[in-house]
Amino acid sequence: MASGDLDQLRQEAVDKIIFHATPKAWLEQAGPWILKRGEGALLYDADGREYLDALSGGVFAVLAGYGRDEVADAMYEQARQLPYTSPYGTTSAVAVELANKLAELTPGDLSASFFCNSGSEAIEAAIKLSYHYHQANGEGHRYKVVSLRRGYHGATMGALSATGWSPGFGLFRRVADPVVPVAGYTTAMPPYCYRCELGLNHPSCALACATTIEQAIMGSDPELVSCVILEPVMGTAGCIIPPPGYLAKVRNICDRYGILLISDEVVCGFGRTGKWFGVNHFDVVPDIMVVAKGLTSGYAPMAASIAKREIAAKIPVFFDVHTYGGHPISAAAAVANIKIIERENLVDNALTVGTHMIDLLNGLRRHPIVGDVRGLGLFMAVELTQHCNTREAFPPEMGVDNQVAAIARDMGLFVRPLGGTVLLAPPLIFTPAQAERTVEVLDAALTQVEERVLADVESTGS
Ligand SMILES: Cc1ncc(COP(=O)(O)O)c(C=O)c1O
Fold first, then answer.
1. What is the distance between the alpha carbons of residues 88 and 301, in angstroms, rounded to a whole number?
2. pLDDT digits over 71-80, tens only?
3. What is the mean pLDDT of residues 352-358?
4. What is the CB < 6 Å shell around ligand 1?
5. Which of 289, 324, 343 is the last residue of a domain?
6. In terms of pTM, does the model score above 0.85?
7. Which of 49, 262, 292, 419 has a Cα-to-Cα distance from 461 of 20 to 30 A?
8. Residue 17 located in a structural domain
9. Which atom of ligand 1 is found nearest the CA of 231?
C-alpha cells in the first residue's frame, strides 16, 4: 500500500474507530497498527513488515495459528447451509456437535454448555447460572461473588466487578463501581508467591492465600455467597501459577460452604498451559468452567459457560439470552479448530516447546532488571524490577515494559507489556526455532532498555 494511502487509513482509523483501552495520545503519536494478513505464527502489517506473533493475536486467542483454510472452509459451508439460529429453544447440529466435544474434553461431569459471544458474557452467565442453581435449591439468598485481587474476568459490568484490581484495570473498575451493586463482590489474595501479600514463603505459608478466600467468605456471610471465581493460572495479572495444593484447598473450602467454584479458562483453555485446561494441572473439577478465545482460535466470536450435569439439570429455565448465542458459523469454526488442535497434538506441542522456551527465558535472569520468569506450557511472563535483588517494581510512568515491547516490535516480535511484566503467549503451533528467536529478540530489547535505565539513574544521580 502506498505510504500516503496508509497514512490516510491510519488517520481514518484514529478518527472513526473507538479503540479498546488504547490511549488516544499513543494512537496519535504511533498510529494504530494496521494488520493485513497472517500465516502460521507470522503476521504482516499494511507496511508489508513481518512479525513473529508471540501473543496469539495480542490477547491469547489464535491458538491454531493464522491461515487455516480448514476453519475458513467450515465457516463458509455453514454460512451457505444455515447462517443463523435463534437461541430460544432452537439450535443447529454443529452446535450440538460442539457441546458434545466440550463435554468430552472437559474434566469430570462438566457437560452442559451455555453458548454466548465473549469471555465477559460467559463469566456473567456463570455468575447467573450459580445464582439460578442456588435458587433451585431453595437458597435464592446466595448472590455474593468472591474473586481474587489482580484477577481479570472481563469488561462488562458484572464481569468487571469480579475483576480484582490489576495494573491498568483500576480505572475500569471505577467505571463499574457506580453501576453494579459492588457490595455483592469481595476479593481475596492471589496466589502470587513472588509478591506474597503476607510476605510468606511456600510451603511454610501453609497456603495462607487460599485461607484468605475462606476469610472473604466468612466476612461476606457464608450463607450469602454464591460462587468463587478464579483463573487457574492468572493471565492478565502476569501468568501467576498457584503453588501445589492451592486449587484443591479452594475446592475444599467451596464444598464446605456449599459455594460453587467457577474456573475462568478464557486464557488457559484449549492447551495454552500444556494441558487441555488449566485445572487439569491441579486435578480439580470446578462446578462451572468458562471458555472463549481459544475455543475458535479467534476465527469467530464465541464463548461458553460449561456447567456440571447436576447444575444444568436443576435449573428449570435459565434467564439469559444473547441473539448470537450458539451461532452456527462460530460453532463450525470451533469444531474445525478443535479438530486441528487434536489432530496436530498442539496441546503436547505447547508443553514441549513451552518447556524449552521457559528454559531459555530463565537465561534472561542474568539481566538485573529481570526479577522473575514464570511459565506453564506456552504461557509465560518476564517480570521487570529495578533490581532483581530488591524486587522493587519500576514506577508505572517509566513504562519500562512498554519500552521492551516497543523495541521488540521494531525487531519484528509481538509481545505484550502489562503492569511491569512482559507477557508471552504464542500460538500452540510455535516451533523450537520460533521460541529461540523470541528469546533472542527479548534479550536484545532488555539489554537496550537496561542501558537506558542505568544511564537515567546515573544522570539523575539516584
Ligand atoms: C481470564 C479472562 N477472563 C475473561 C476475559 C474476557 O473475555 P472477553 O474479552 O472475550 O470478553 C478475558 C479477556 O482477556 C480474560 O483474560
1. 19
2. 999 999 999 9
3. 98
4. 59, 118-120, 123, 152-155, 231, 235-236, 264, 266-267, 292
5. 343
6. yes
7. 419
8. no
9. 1
Mutate to test the pocket of ligand 1, among 152, 156, 166 (most ligand atoms within 8 A of CB): 152
> Do 374 and 436 fall within a single domain?
yes
Q: Are both 95 and 38 inside the same structural domain?
A: no
Sheet of strand 303-308, all strands in order from the earlier edge strand to the far edge: 110-116, 303-308, 288-291, 260-264, 225-230, 144-148, 185-188
Residue that finishes a domain, picked among 343, 366, 394: 343
Domain count, the chain: 2
Which pLDDT value is given to residue 179?
A: 57
- My answer on whether 83 and 200 are in the same domain is yes
Q: What is the mean pLDDT of the chain?
A: 94
Mutate to test the pocket of ligand 1, among 147, 231, 266 (most ligand atoms within 8 A of CB): 266
Question: How far is the centre of ligand 1, averaged over its atoms, from the C-alpha of 375 (Å)?
Answer: 19
Do residue 74 and residue 133 come from a single domain?
yes
The CA distance from 99 to 96, in Å, is: 5
Same domain? For 395 and 280 the reply is: no
Contact (Cβ atoms closer than 8 angstroms) between residue 404 and residue 413: no
20-34 tens-digit pLDDT: 988 888 888 878 999
pLDDT number for residue 229: 98
Residue 117 phi/psi, 5-degree rounding, is: -110, -20
Domain boundaries, position 373: 33-64+345-460
Q: Are 127 and 254 in the same domain?
A: yes
